[in-house]
Amino acid sequence: ICSKVITRTWTLVDACNNAATPQVQTITVTDNIAPTFTAPANIEIFTTATCTYDASVALTGDVTNEADNCSTNLQATFTDSVADGTCPGSKVITRTWTLVDGCNNAATPQVQTITVRDNTAPTFTAPANIEIFTTANCTYDASIAITGDVTNEADNCSTGLQATFTDSVADGACAGSKVITRTW
User: Fold this and answer.
1) 75-125 confidence digits (pLDDT tens)
2) Which of 29, 38, 93, 183, CA to CA, is 20 to 30 A from 22?
3) What is the SS3 assignment for the chain?
4) Cα separation of 78 and 159, whole Å?
């Protein structure tokens, strides 16, 4: 119930019992107090193996402390604004919570920030260990074309991945031989 109407009738009688015409005053009592609530805390969630995410209230939190001076059984609602994050699969969800009582008094909107992040590392297969041979002038070619490249590069969110490597070269057991430790 948002308002009540009080009809107050005023009468006046003098000492000689003469009565004035009654006069009516109408008093309208209206609820103009907005409800209150507490939005859930900002939260970070993570992408799945298929680069999707679940930002449901069950996982990100619901409002608490919903209260109003007149209305009961209040339920806050929200709208989401989704922006891309800084890397593939990441998102920033700005969730704006609102609460309106039965008399259309609105609480001040509250914002929850939900950060979606990809925390799944990419995978790949390094080429097999290999033995290569020196040329007639004791040089060697350890290029990827000769030694092999990685395969099965995959990630749940990123595409176009290209593995890189660094080499550490040490002398082998005999002159001209080398041991190349290639870290991908």
Assistant:
1) 999 999 999 999 999 999 999 999 999 999 999 999 999 999 999 999 999
2) 29
3) CCEEEEEEEECCECCCCCECCCEEEEEEEECCCCCEEECCCCEEEECCCCCCCCCCHHHHCCCEEEECCCCCCCCCEEEEEEEECCCCCCEEEEEEEECECCCCCECCCEEEEEEEECCCCCEEECCCCCCCCCCCCCCCCCCHHHHCCCEEEECCCCCCCCCCCEEEEEECCCCCCEEEEEEC
4) 33
Nearest to 49 by CA among 156, 155, 158: 156
CA distances from 71 to 40, 61, 64, 89, 131 (A): 22, 23, 16, 42, 80
pLDDT at 167: 96
Segment 13-68, tens digit of pLDDT? 999 999 999 999 999 999 999 999 999 999 999 999 999 999 999 999 999 999 99
The model's pTM: 0.77
Rounded Cα gap, residues 105 and 122, in angstroms: 50
Quote the pLDDT of residue 4.
93
